[in-house]
Design goal:
seven-stranded mixed β-sheet; 25% helix; alpha/beta; four-stranded antiparallel β-sheet; 7 helices; 239 residues; globular
Length: 239
């Protein structure tokens, strides 16, 4: 069901392949999930390692890779602390996954581990939501429609979301409620996501040894504007 709510997106895939992938490139994707970017990166000719904390997600990613003929080395890891004994031309953290870092210590450990694995001149490439003030101020417990999807076995699934936001920690507590017509709220998915504001992001990177090289408002490389709802970023180790 994760793949229903986070389907393939050609523009996102093309961006990550163009910036990080290509023949003989060495690419590490962190929080790779079910492999929706790992596989296109591998198909571009890159040598790819995909890491995730969830073995269940990695099993799904391995299945997708086998189905498509993509060669990927999938490993179970916590992206705050791992050692692969190799270096990479690019490290990718796609689809807002960096928001799973909650504390200053989490970010420090993440970026230190990435620096240990980046080859000289390598890129850190990631995307992250621009915090939405309206969503973060929703009344406690009020459900908002996130989307509706067609499942092969369960039929039409509706997903609703509630959000509780703590402005002092900048962490939002989100719950996704999955329902069918005959089985309301049959599943709940909980997410704790650290909101990263646009003015904060360059400082956060700089504090942890990186410099923001490019930042776009979407994967088509349009400028970041007040109307943008995501930050698409390329960073390098600072000098």
């Amino acid at each position: 069901m994760y793949d229903l709510i986070a389907p393939r997106d050609a523009t996102m895939e093309n961006f990550y392949v163009e910036v990080a992938g290509g023949p003989s490139r060495r690419v590490l994707e962190l929080a790779c999930g079910s492999g929706r970017f790992t596989v296109p990166l591998a198909k571009s000719g890159a040598h790819v390692v995909g890491g995730d904390l969830s073995e269940t997600m990695l099993e799904r990613a391995r299945s997708v890779a086998r189905e498509t003929g993509a060669k990927v080395n999938f490993v179970t890891l916590d992206m705050r602390d791992f050692q692969l004994n190799q270096s990479f031309d690019a490290v990718v953290i796609a689809a807002n996954s960096i928001m799973h870092m909650h504390s200053t210590e989490d970010f420090a450990r993440l970026f230190a581990t990435i620096r240990r694995h980046l080859a000289p001149g390598g890129n850190l490439v990631f995307d992250v939501f621009v915090p939405n003030a309206r969503l973060l101020r929703l009344p406690l417990g009020e459900r908002q429609l996130l989307g509706s999807f067609r499942h092969d076995e369960l039929g039409e699934i509706v997903v609703e979301e509630t959000i509780s936001y703590n402005p002092t920690t900048q962490i939002s507590e989100a719950n996704w409620y999955w329902s069918t017509a005959s089985n309301p709220s049959f599943r709940r998915t909980s997410l704790r996501l650290r909101q990263i504001f646009p003015q904060e992001l360059p400082l956060l990177l700089r504090q942890n040894g990186f410099e923001l090289v490019s930042r776009f408002g979407d994967f088509d490389r349009r400028p970041l504007t007040p109307e943008s709802w995501r930050q698409v970023c390329i960073a390098k180790e600072g000098t």
